[in-house]
Amino acid sequence: MTTNTNNTGKRSGLPVDGLLLLNKPAGLTSNRALQKVKRLLRARKAGHTGSLDPAATGMLPLCFGEATKVCAYLLNADKTYRVSARLGEKTDTGDADGQVIETAAVPTMTEQEWQEVLDGFLGETEQIPPMYSALKVDGKRLYELARKGETVERKPRPIRVDEISLLEAKGSRLVLRVKCSKGTYIRTLVEDIAEVAGTIAHTDSLHRESVGAFRAEDMLDLDKAEEWAESEPELLMKRLLAPDIALADMPEITLTDDGLARFVQGQIVEVQDAREGEVRVYGAAAQFTGVGELIGNERLAPRRVFNYAKNP
Question: What pLDDT, on a 0 to 100 scale, did the predictor assign at position 8?
Fold first, then answer.
């Protein structure tokens, strides 16, 4: 999350609130893509969730203003990827940006045989993160150590693969669609799949098709965002999504005017609701106001309160 200030110490930029689903192009880090769109919107405050490798493309949810408060919830969302793998070649980074360090023969397999291999990766399992990743060990990023030629022990992490389907298997090219939990490294998954199939591989290209319930057709290309910012900025503003869309799977509750007033002041509100857990909170006018937690004895405790400014 980033906030700009001017020389007087005051925040600069406009109070823009909302989410934008960027179709990140290859060659940009996630943060660089965020900063570009932030400047286009002249937004005061921005953050992103679910980083993509620079070489990867696809859905990168960008959060502006009050919408930055839903970033943590989006981190837990499932993701869907389309991945193209190059069989018979292993690289030091696990993707096409790295150097080939090993080659091997590619087995001849039918689509059914490939699908049987893929099905073995469904469900909950553990995965060892790659050295070329942003995870920290003793305060240092793994990729920083990897670039120095160092390898350190990494603890396996739990992941979940809900769907994995074969889209193409031709020669050394393997194309898959994968729906998985947060924290799943597709590069490592590709290497593990190849190992079971009796060969090696690296990720040739990676495209993230969806994050949570967000739809691929709602993504906006960066060049289109730049075009609109220059000629029709109102169109760019209209592409912003309301923050509560990111919380669509969360139950909702509507408060009275009195209850809402107490909620936004950070006070516990008495409600007639026997449920427990986090809920989206709305006022009588259907205005999304925040996230609360229903606790024992029918009480609602504020967890995230949203204070909107009018978008320019």
Answer: 40
53 is catalytic: yes
Angle between helices 30-41 and 222-231 (to 10 degrees): 20
Beta bridge partners of 301: 293
User: Which position among 53, 92, 204, 244 bears the catalytic label?
Assistant: 53
3-state secondary structure labels for all residues of 240-255: CECHHHHHCCCCEEEC
DSSP 152: -
Q: What parts of the chain have a pLDDT lower than 50? A: 1-10, 311-312
The CATH homologous superfamily for domain 80-211 is Pseudouridine synthase (3.30.2350.10)
- The CATH class given to the 250-305 domain equals mainly beta
Please answer whether residues 101 and 91 qualify as being in contact, where contact means their C-beta atoms are separated by less than 8 angstroms: yes
Which tokens in the block code for residue 245? 């869309």
What's the CA gap between 67 and 308, in Å, rounded? 9
**Do residues 176 and 165 make contact, with C-beta atoms less than 8 angstroms apart?**
yes
Rounded CA-CA distance 185/189 in Å is 6
pTM: 0.87
Here the tokens at position 217 are: 């057709």
